[in-house]
Amino acid sequence: xxxxAWLVAGRDLRIEARSRVALWQVLPFALLALVLFxxxxxxxxxxxxxxxxxxxxxxxxxxxxxxxxxSVAIESGEGTRDGLRLSGLDPAGxxxxxxxxxxxxxxxxxxxxxxxxxxxxxxTIRAIWLAVAAAALATIGLAAAGVIYGALSGGLxxxxxxxxxxxxxxxxxxxxxASRVWSAAAVGAVGAGESWLRILxxxxxxxxxxxxxxxxPLLEAG
Amino acid sequence: MSxxxxxxxxxxxxxxDHQGEPRPVIDDELHRRLRPRWVRVTGVAGLLGLTATVxxxxxxxxxxxxxxxxxxxxxxxxxxxxxxLYLAFGLAALSSLLYLWRRTRSxxxxxxxxxxxxxxxxxxxxxxxxGMLWGRPTWGVWWTWDARLTSTALLLVxxxxxxxxxxxPAAPEVRARRCAVAAIVAFVDVPIVHFSVVWWQTLHQGxxxxxxxxxxxxxxxxxxxxxxxxxxxxxVFVWMVSIxxxxxxxxxxxxxxxxATALAERWAEDEASGTAPTFGLGASSVPEEVVSATRGDxxxxxxxxxx
Lengths: 222, 307
Description:
Radius of gyration of chain B: 24 Å
Order of helices and strands of chain B: HHHHHHHHHHH
Helix content of chain A: over 70%
Distance between the termini of chain A: 21 Å
Helix content of chain B: over 70%
Number of strands of chain A: 0
Mean pLDDT of chain A: 89
Structural class of chain B: mainly alpha
Mean pLDDT of chain B: 77
Distance between the termini of chain B: 28 Å
Shape of chain A: globular
Oligomer: heterodimer
Number of helices of chain B: 11
Structural class of chain A: mainly alpha
Number of helices of chain A: 9
Low-confidence stretches of chain B: 18-25, 204-216, 279-287, 289-307
């Protein structure tokens, strides 16, 4: 299973390395969102800094939807799905691989986005390890839930409009928890932040487990 | 029986009695057992119960000491919430699980899940609406980011997604599996949503001066009216779900039947022109688009049946 996951993740990342869709489309979108947030809230740096953790995660969520779209689009070429089914790869491995690829891309995006936020909004984070732990868990959760729904809406013509409606309510707790942790981490309130990891951790675990179980049936349902 | 087999079996039958009355083609246990009379009786009982609740709630029961007349919403709001959040979504989760489990897999569970989600969404929206009506005079605001309100609202959006997915055209089996998985994936989220918004409220200083608890002890005519409200709402729920279930079945039947007719006509043409009927090929190559096109508007298909 893990070997299959490795293969699929490698393939998805290699396609990204060659096509650069995430780099030239998703990442600029996330940075654009930062600028738009600033327009919406006004140029006051104090306001921006206090709203920054929430805005950061909203931007990550929307970019995550785009990344999942891209991850599904890779599979929607002529006969790709059948090829994948016939390849003998473990469906659970395919799921883990695709989720890992999306998670890695999101993680890279978060780093750049964070630098942008640091420069544009003037935010600092005191408890770095807390923020990083939260980001890692949140990213895994987002990628897992996203890839499940991506497979669910895979062959559908209405995918673009349906996917956000399905994914965003499900990942709402991630947005909530991750922004709270980051707010806490920004002021160094480690205790308040840590308790939120108890939402992010189980969320990631639960959706990884669900994905491992349901990805096979979903591939068949095509 | 797979969709394709079902269609080809029906088409064979339709070809045999070419001019004959079309027979019901979907063999569905509950559909046969849902006698219109019992459905009607449940409906009448539910509506009568609701009327009685309204009369008792508005005129017979006394106003509350602290809340005055506002307390009368208690006869409506909790029963509606009970139906939406526990009965409807619970039933939908259970049916989806039973559909996914191989040994109990049957479109019966899929239709039941769809029917109860649809009714559940309506009741969920009603829960929010009645809650707001009560919140405005009591708390002074229509909406507050209270944990219970927030998670109820999120639940509504989650299941709106389910309904949206259901409207996407697909063969019944494909749609059933897709929707069952979506329902389960959404259900797993419910406890997480619940805990996260509860913590959000307690850790984030919110306006939690507002206590959603109603008077803890309630007795006499008020208790009876509340009980009646629960029973009546449950009956209304059962009634609505049976009707929705019937419509789901009829819509599926309409699709199967129109496909069968189209196939039969095609074969009749083949026979008339002297070419061999392409049974195997014809049945197995029912293109997905045909299924999708006919699934496009279930309302229309139902309309055709009624006609």
